[in-house]
């Protein structure tokens, strides 16, 4: 009974309590990915996560103090933002940069626009894009420990010689990338948990990943193995389940959600194949966040009892 | 009406006043600005020729200068300064080079560049004092070969420009044109030579070129440490002047090459054939020719940056003992100027003569580790493949 | 009374009617020349020189210039002064000329100058107009400098071209701020800060009308009348 209250939160005013529960569910759903990150990347991953979460919460508290607003850290949304951002960063990022990114997400993307519910784009995504442009260290891939014992400089070549794309490695996260985006399995577990708990619906992730899959398949000329590698690598999984589904910045109707997911998928593939950056997921979500109000006005909710 | 006239008059008066003010200012500042610009330009030229004095720009339409020359100036001390545009790792490597009246480089600087490694900033100093005869002996910087060799070629063009401006004539042919001219000199009947892939072990032959019109071949051999081009007609008879020893050697090589033929091997029947071997052929003399790919920087399995990149494709000939007869990069899409050194003949020919135990002696190039290490592993797999096909692995 | 008035004319450009952060004029040079402190200072001073000169001349000619052709007249005077300043800088400070490049000529279309000519110099005495030019010029320069200091120190780890070794060696710079989008970000944040500091002291912009306009004092509803005439 209680779960049913969570079906569609966005257009309704809801109490702090329900926000907190939703956020708690998201945090629980992110636990597998966080654990996987620490297993794969070791202590540095733990440090990045800690720094991001602490600076996000501290940033929110101080910002609220500075503008004399009611304290909102209790709703846990800052923890979620910090955690998601951390999972989007490489393990070897300088910690001060991680902190700057968290503060950017909380203060500039969320706080200045009026706090939770009033931000026009997802804070974690905007911060990731900001950091991608601002810091060179964001593009430096890190390689999970234990797989390469020889030299740190060229692990990919060492591993890749004589070996084609190993899908199982990608699925389990034994590949380069940011903390949380490598292990597709952990992200899937978290995503399914969110859907089961009815925190999110399946529409955006399925439309997003499905579009990316089909479009990539077409561009790769029907090569399933390469297409799967494209889908499993990069930030697609974490983006589709955890960032594109943010209530505030995604549509609330089923039709709108499908449009949002398909649009994000198309932009992702276009950037991956034809753009200057290797990864397009964050840009795709950011752009769809920006057009979200138009999607909402194109797909109005039917009035109860209104004409069919 | 009166308003209109008043408007017109007042606007005209204001414009006239402003014009007067502007012309007065211009009268005062124009000479200073011109002097500044002239001094700045002269000063820039003095950097590469400190005792050049005053410079006059050369009217380039009156001379046939190398294509890379953008501007040329003659100095009052008899030398000249040349501005050139070269293509190194990136486009628009702009170089300024001074050459004195005796044909020595007095200085070279890079004015602007799109290079990544920064070698162009200091390389000019090493070229100081070079002449047209010595410039090509000056070493390029390893790890920045593309940039520095483009730099050196630009300075060579500047030296040639100095000769032309001094009334002399210079050899402006490109390396490829020089090669084609040399080949044509050895086999006058031939046209448009292309390199032949050598799949047989030949004594003292470093390259074979075939004429497109079927007139025959040119063999490159070494006599007394100098390259000699020997023309051979379609039947394998030496047609150019050569000592009897050389003639005999080349005719023997030509006989082997003319009689060789390739037969494709079905590699799918070898279960443990390395996956990077794409095609294999066997010659009637028992050698193997393999078409393989190697993983460089462009494509190496699950490369995060560039999953749609390309392998390096290599054609390699080996004896049945696994000794490398020849090695050639047929296709690559490595980073231009960095990994792309793998397409250079100087790079791939390092593996000639190497075998199972010695192929790892070829140095991995620092800064190009991914490409050169991948290349070496690919070659290692080719040697392994020969062992497998010979049934000794 | 008059003295106090003159003082307030001079000081209002610093904060209360700061051309960059409150009137939001001259955005183009603000974003373009604030990646270095040198460029910002040069642009600020050059603009101030043009602003003072054009304010004085336009104020002198205000009785002579007919209302119908006042904008062309202002533009001719301003463009004339900009060209003069440009020639002088090119002749005597060639390094600054290279730094500012095309933005020097673009002072002509800087809205601050035409704005002050239209809003102030065309209606006030020479002395007051000169003070207004000085005040606005200093306000513009301070605004540019404050942006440039933030952008250069954090963006490239240097101050007025001198490297701050502590920042550079430890990689503590955010190169983003030196680029165009970073300029917009710093601009927005500084506007927010100025808004916060002057809260309650500035003209309250509660409504979208003449009364809410920061230039209301100088304009006296001129724009609104012009709009009505246009209808």
Keywords:
heterotrimer, A: 308 residues, mainly alpha, Ammonium transporter fold, 13 helices, C: 231 residues, two-stranded antiparallel ribbon, 12 helices, globular
Describe this structure in words.
Helices cover 61% and strands 0% of the residues of chain A. Chain A is mainly α. The longest helix of chain A is centred in the N-terminal third of the chain and has 26 residues, at 16-41. The two termini of chain A are 29 Å apart. By secondary structure, chain B is α+β, with helices and mostly antiparallel strands. Chain B has three domains: 55-165, no CATH class; 175-259, no CATH class; 263-390, Sufe protein. Chain: A (Alpha-Beta Complex), CATH 3.90.1010. In chain B, the strands form three sheets. Chain B has a five-stranded antiparallel sheet with strand order 1-2-3-4-5, covered by helices on one side. Chain B has a five-stranded antiparallel sheet with strand order 10-11-12-13-14, covered by helices on one side. Chain C has helices at 2-12, 27-32, 37-60, 70-92, 94-100, 102-105, 111-121, 126-156, 165-169, 180-197, 216-219, 222-230, and strands at residues 158-159, 162-163. Chain C has one domain. In chain C, strand 1 (158-159) and strand 2 form a beta hairpin. Chain C contains twelve helices and two strands; from the N terminus they run ααααααααββαααα. Chain C is globular. Chain C has 231 residues and is an all-alpha fold.
Topology:
The complex is a heterotrimer of chains A (308), B (393) and C (231).
Chain A: H1 16-41, H2 43-66, H3 77-87, H4 95-111, H5 123-134, H6 155-160, H7 167-172, H8 184-196, H9 203-219, H10 224-232, H11 236-243, H12 254-274, H13 281-298
Chain B: H1 2-46, E1 55-57, E2 69-75, E3 80-86, E4 93-99, E5 105-112, H2 120-126, H3 145-165, H4 175-186, E6 193-196, E7 207-211, E8 216-223, E9 226-233, H5 244-259, E10 262-265, E11 277-283, E12 288-294, E13 312-318, E14 324-331, H6 345-348, H7 369-390
Antiparallel strand pairs in B: 1-2, 2-3, 3-4, 4-5, 6-7, 7-8, 8-9, 10-11, 11-12, 12-13, 13-14
Chain C: H1 2-12, H2 27-32, H3 37-60, H4 70-92, H5 94-100, H6 102-105, H7 111-121, H8 126-156, E1 158-159, E2 162-163, H9 165-169, H10 180-197, H11 216-219, H12 222-230
Antiparallel strand pairs in C: 1-2
């Amino acid at each position: 009974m209680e779960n049913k209250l969570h079906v569609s939160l966005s257009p309704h005013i809801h109490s702090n309590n329900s926000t907190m529960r939703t956020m708690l569910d998201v945090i629980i759903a992110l636990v597998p990915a966080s654990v996987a990150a620490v297993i794969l990347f070791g202590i540095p991953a733990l440090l990045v996560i800690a720094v991001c979460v602490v600076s996000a919460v501290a940033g929110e508290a101080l910002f609220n103090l500075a503008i004399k607003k009611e304290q909102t850290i209790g709703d846990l949304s800052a923890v979620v933002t910090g955690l998601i951002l951390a999972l989007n960063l490489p393990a070897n990022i300088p910690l001060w940069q991680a902190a700057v990114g968290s503060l950017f997400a909380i203060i500039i993307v969320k706080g200045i626009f009026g706090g939770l519910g009033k931000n026009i784009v997802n804070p974690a995504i905007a911060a990731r894009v900001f950091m991608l442009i601002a810091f060179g260290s964001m593009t430096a891939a890190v390689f999970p420990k234990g797989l390469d014992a020889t030299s740190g400089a060229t692990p990919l070549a060492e591993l890749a010689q004589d070996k084609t794309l190993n899908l199982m490695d990608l699925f389990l996260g034994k590949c380069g990338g940011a903390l949380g985006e490598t292990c597709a399995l952990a992200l899937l577990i978290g995503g399914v948990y969110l859907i089961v708990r009815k925190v999110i619906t399946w529409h955006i992730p399925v439309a997003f990943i499905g579009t990316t899959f089909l479009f990539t398949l077409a561009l790769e000329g029907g090569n399933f193995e390469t297409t799967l590698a494209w889908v499993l690598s990069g930030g697609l999984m974490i983006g589709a389940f955890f960032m594109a589904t943010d209530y505030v910045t995604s549509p609330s109707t089923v039709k709108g959600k499908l449009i949002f997911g398909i649009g994000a998928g198309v932009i992702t593939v276009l950037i991956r194949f034809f753009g200057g950056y290797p990864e397009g997921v964050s840009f795709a979500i950011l752009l769809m966040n920006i057009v979200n109000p138009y999607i909402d006005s194109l797909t109005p909710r039917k009035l109860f009892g209104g004409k069919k | 009406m009166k308003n209109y006239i008043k408007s017109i008059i007042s606007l005209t008066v204001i414009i006239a006043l402003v014009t007067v003010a502007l012309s007065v200012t211009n009268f005062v500042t124009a000479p200073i600005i011109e002097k500044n610009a002239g001094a700045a330009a002269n000063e820039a030229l003095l950097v590469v020729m400190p005792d050049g004095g005053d410079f006059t720009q050369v009217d380039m339409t009156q001379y046939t200068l190398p294509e890379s020359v953008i501007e040329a100036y003659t100095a009052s001390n008899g030398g000249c300064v040349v501005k050139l545009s070269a293509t190194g790792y990136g486009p628009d490597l702009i170089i300024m080079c001074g050459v004195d009246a005796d044909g020595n480089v007095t200085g070279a600087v890079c004015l602007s560049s799109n290079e990544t490694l920064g070698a162009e900033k200091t390389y000019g100093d090493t070229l100081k004092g070079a002449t047209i005869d010595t410039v090509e002996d000056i070493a390029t910087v390893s790890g920045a070969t593309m940039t520095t060799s483009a730099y050196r070629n630009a300075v060579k063009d500047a030296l040639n420009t100095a000769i032309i401006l001094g009334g002399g004539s210079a050899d402006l042919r490109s390396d490829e044109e020089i090669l084609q001219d040399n080949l044509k000199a050895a086999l006058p009947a031939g046209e448009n030579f292309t390199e032949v892939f050598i799949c047989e072990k030949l004594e003292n032959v470093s390259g074979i070129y075939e004429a497109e019109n079927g007139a025959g071949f040119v063999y490159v051999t070494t006599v007394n440490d100098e390259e000699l081009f020997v023309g051979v007609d379609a039947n394998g008879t030496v047609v150019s002047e050569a000592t009897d020893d050389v003639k005999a050697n080349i005719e023997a090589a030509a006989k082997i090459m003319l009689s060789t033929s390739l037969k494709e091997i079905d590699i799918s029947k070898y279960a443990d054939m390395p996956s990077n071997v794409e095609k294999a052929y066997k010659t009637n003399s028992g050698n193997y020719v393999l078409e393989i790919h190697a993983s460089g920087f462009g494509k190496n399995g699950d490369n995060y940056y560039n999953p749609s990149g390309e392998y390096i494709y290599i054609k390699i000939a080996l004896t049945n003992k696994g000794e490398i007869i020849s090695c050639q990069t047929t296709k690559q899409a490595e980073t231009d100027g960095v990994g792309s050194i793998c397409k250079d003949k100087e790079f791939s020919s390092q593996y000639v003569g190497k075998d199972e135990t010695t192929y790892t002696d070829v140095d991995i190039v620092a800064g190009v580790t991914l490409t050169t290490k991948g290349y070496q592993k690919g070659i290692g797999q080719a040697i392994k493949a020969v062992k497998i096909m010979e049934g000794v692995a | 009374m008059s003295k106090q008035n003159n003082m307030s004319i001079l000081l209002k450009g610093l904060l209360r009617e700061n051309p960059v952060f409150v009137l939001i004029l001259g955005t183009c040079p603000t974003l373009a020349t604030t990646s270095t402190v040198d460029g910002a200072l040069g642009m600020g001073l050059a603009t101030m020189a043009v602003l003072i000169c054009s304010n004085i001349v336009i104020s002198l000619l205000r009785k002579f210039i007919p209302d119908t052709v006042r904008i062309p007249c202002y533009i001719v005077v301003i463009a004339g002064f900009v060209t003069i300043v440009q020639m002088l800088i090119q002749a005597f400070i060639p390094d600054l000329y290279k730094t500012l490049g095309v933005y020097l000529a673009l002072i002509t279309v800087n809205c601050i100058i035409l704005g002050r000519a239209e809003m102030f110099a065309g209606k006030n005495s020479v002395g007051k107009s000169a003070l207004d030019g000085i005040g606005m010029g200093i306000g513009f320069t301070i605004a540019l400098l404050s942006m440039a200091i933030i952008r250069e120190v954090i963006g490239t780890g240097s101050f007025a071209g001198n490297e701050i070794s502590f920042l550079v060696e430890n990689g503590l710079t955010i190169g983003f701020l030196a680029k165009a989008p970073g300029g917009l970000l710093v601009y927005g944040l500084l506007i927010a800060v100025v808004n916060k500091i002057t809260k309650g002291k500035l003209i309250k912009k509660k409504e979208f009308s003449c009364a809410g306009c920061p230039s209301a004092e100088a304009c006296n509803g001129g724009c609104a009348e012009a709009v009505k005439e246009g209808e």
